[in-house]
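#lab-general

N.A. 3:47 PM
ok so I finally got the sequence cleaned up, no stray characters, all 150 residues accounted for. can someone with queue access submit it? mine expired

B.Y. 3:52 PM
send it over

N.A. 3:53 PM
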Amino acid sequence: MSLLTRKTLFTIATGVFVAGIAAMVFMQDAADIFWVDNSVVSDTPTRELYPSEKAALAKSLSPGLNDPDSVQWRWLPLNMQTFEKGQGRYCGYLNARDGGGNYLGFQPFLAAVRTARKEIRSGELALVATDAEALQVVKRMCAQSGYALP
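B.Y. 4:20 PM
back already:
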C-alpha cells in the first residue's frame, strides 16, 4: 500500500474515530468528573499500566510515527472507567522525532485501545497535540475521559 494511501486511510479512520469518541464523551455521565484547580479528577478507580500494556501500546501506537523505535513515552495512570466491551480510551504523552531526526518534545495523545479482561492489548493513535488547536482538543477529550493533562 502506498504511503499516500496509508496516510489518507489513517486520516479518514482518525476522523471517524474522533467523531465516535466525541459522541461517547458527550453521552458520558458528567457526575463522574469534578473540576479542581483547573485539572480534572475522576472519582473512578485508576491504576498504573502493567509492563505488558506499556509494551503493547508502544508497539501498536508508534508505527505511524517517524523513527518508531526512538519514540519516548510518558504513561499516565489508567482510568478504568474508560473501558467498555473490549475497547476504551487512553491518554498519555509521546516524544517523537521529526523528519530531520530531532525530538519534538512531549506531546499529549489520545488513543483508542482494545482490551481483554480489563487489560490493554493494543491501540491506535486518535489524536496527537501537534499544534495549539489540537492541544486544546486533546486536553478537552482526555479530560472528558477522566485524564488530567496540565
